[in-house]
Amino acid sequence: MTSPLGAFAEESEGAEGAATEPVAAEETNTAETPVIVEGAVPAENQPAVVETPEEASAEDEVTAEEPVESDGETTPAAEDGESEAADDVVETPAVERDVAAILEAARAAGMAGLDELTRYLNGEQLSVEELARIDVAVLATIDADLAAQIAALQTPADITEPEPDQPSTDDKTTDEDKPAVEEPVVEEQEPVVEAAPTETAAEAEAEVIVPNWSYNGDTSYTPRAYGVSLTTEKFIAVIGEASRKYAAENDLYASVMIAQAILESGSGNSGLSQPPYFNLFGVKGAYDGEGVTMLTSEDDGTGSYYTINAQFRSYPSYRASLLDYVDLLTSSYYAGARKSVAGSPAAVCNYLEGRYATSTSYSENLQDLILTYDLTRFDEPLDYELSEEYWVGVSDKELCDVLAIDEGSLPATITADWLAGTLSNYPVAQAVLSGEVNVPASVADLNVADVESGEAAIASDATEADMLSAALSALAAENHYGPMRVTIDGARNVTAVEESRDLVDLTVEATTHLGTPYLLGAAGPDAFDCSGLVWRSYQDALGTTLPRESASQVQVGQDVDFADLHAGDLLFFVNSGGTVVHVAMYLGEGCYIESADNGVQVTALENGSPVIAKRILETQPVDVDVEAADPEA
Predict the structure, then answer these.
(1) What residues form DSSP beta bridges with 90?
(2) Which residues pair with 438 in a beta bridge?
(3) Does residue 201 register a pLDDT over 80?
């Protein structure tokens, strides 16, 4: 895995270095029939198709492993079982063959495009795109004549369009001569499973359909006045919203939290903060039994430093590091770091000096960072939120994490009685189940403070599922999970346990993949192309299935002005022919996350060249009447 160091540290101060942006290869296609290439950002001010010979020859073949970024061909689904438009359909020749034997051999060989081959041999009409999914190289080992026949149909000769009002007897016209393409109908569905491409660039170019898209938003954007370092600004964009959320939920200052992460990790560039350790705060010891020994400098109390070996905690992700910091700062040893106790970020910085770190200039350094990067803005809540609740099923591991049990202790069938008995072992959950605390009308409205104070809203018609949901949510909150809800069937078996998710969960999911390498057609977890990263992030974080390709993703959602971007909004890039070739996700703070040539990385908005912004999930304003604390108070 490429280190996230490349995501933050490759630019010189205040400007992006050339190495951080994908290099634009020489454009080999024309504006009339552009090849859609995923995972490449057009050159600034002059978007262009970015492709290598390998990528151009790798765009349409099909795999059984994972979703693929196709060549961008977007064809509306045929209705009522009818074939696609006649211009794009190839007649199946009538040839005597042992169909069953061929299909059995193809299945045994694991050949890609088996479904298309079956339809072809059964006499169905297939489009060129569908025929291209058949792996003729493997097929040639089974029936060479059939493979040659299909290979010829995969690359039809150019046909001259007939004069107006003259019917055409040809099966295929060139893309250059086709009429304007209607805007395709976008349906949310599981992505097509496709494989490693093999066809040539010329073949791919001949089959491309340029999708229609429109954008009515305003692209005007005022570049941020960056502080001392763009590297640090990118790091803030990665952890900022998560810090805002976790700090607000736990009576802490997000400004101090972010400043400490910057100082302790070198803006995410220290060896300890990068994979596989993810330790952003220099916390010593072990985490779930995992640790790493490294050299560290300690202040002897007079400003002089000495070096020692120390064990530091090793985390599975940045999220785990942030939440472990929250647990540490809310422990009794750091009681003075609480917002309700200290009263200001400056007071917390003073409190931490000599307690959290030995440096005699620790407080001064933290306060300088808070002022330089205006971090107190993260002490205020966001002024927008999702308009709807999004619930995603939790894994067995996550449920066991909340219940603090081993996965082996989880019964094959979870009953309401078993869950109630397990929850009753925890005071906060027992308070709900015993009726000491009122069950809220909406599980999403429950928080630990309400449970502990007995001020949770009253629901007169609370069901057993409501009671268990509220108790589980109370316990989940103590373990840094969102509200949870339980579904029970007539036999009182628990059929589903779901967690409420929000936009922060979306950005946390995306940034979890920082440093993961780029691979055309990949949708994770070990590699991504641009739309694969977006597709995977929305699917895993919010249970929302987007189209798999950027050319189709641009058809989803609402246009949004660049000056009003929210976390999770999608940014699209086009080439000189007007074809969408790349997509990224906005994080906040003028930065977006993308999978490009260098892998998953963070880029400043003004150093890219997106021309379309889409809001996939509807948001709504939140009344914010909170004044951020004065960092110098």
Answers:
(1) 126
(2) none
(3) no
For residue 399, what are its two tokens?
């449920």
Does residue 462 contact residue 368 with C-beta atoms inside 8 Å?
A: no
Element (H, E) at 339: helix 339-342
Cα–Cα distance measured from residue 524 to residue 568, given in angstroms and rounded to the nearest whole number = 18
- The alpha helices in 306-361, defined as continuous H runs, are 318-329, 339-342, 345-352
- Is the peptide bond between 525 and the residue preceding it cis, with omega within 30 degrees of 0? yes
Read off the pLDDT of residues 570-605 as tens digits, 9 standing for 90 and up.
999 999 888 999 999 999 999 999 999 999 999 998
Angle (CA) 132-137-139 rounded to 5° is 85
State whether residue 114 is helix, strand or coil.
helix
The verdict on pTM exceeding 0.85 is no
Q: Where are the beta strands (DSSP E) in 50-191?
A: 66-67, 89-90, 126-127
pLDDT at 607 over 80: yes
**CA–CA distances in Å: residue 287 to residues 176, 260, 330, 334, 561:** 60, 19, 17, 19, 43
Which residues, 6 or more positions from 368, have their beta carbon under 8 angstroms from its beta carbon? none
| CA end-to-end span of the chain | 44
- Between 318-329 and 503-511, two packed helices, what is the crossing angle to 10 degrees? 120
Collapsed DSSP state (helix, strand, coil) of residue 127: strand
Residue with tokens 């993260």: 378
pLDDT of residue 97: 65
Whole-angstrom distance, CA of residue 274 vs CA of residue 297: 19
- Identify the three-state secondary structure at position 614: strand
Residues 459, 561: Cα–Cα separation, whole Å = 41
Do residues 369 and 259 lie in contact, with contact meaning Cβ atoms separated by under 8 Å? yes
Tokens of 36: 């859609």
- C-alpha 237/C-alpha 605 separation (Å) is 12
Amino acid (one-letter) located at 97: R
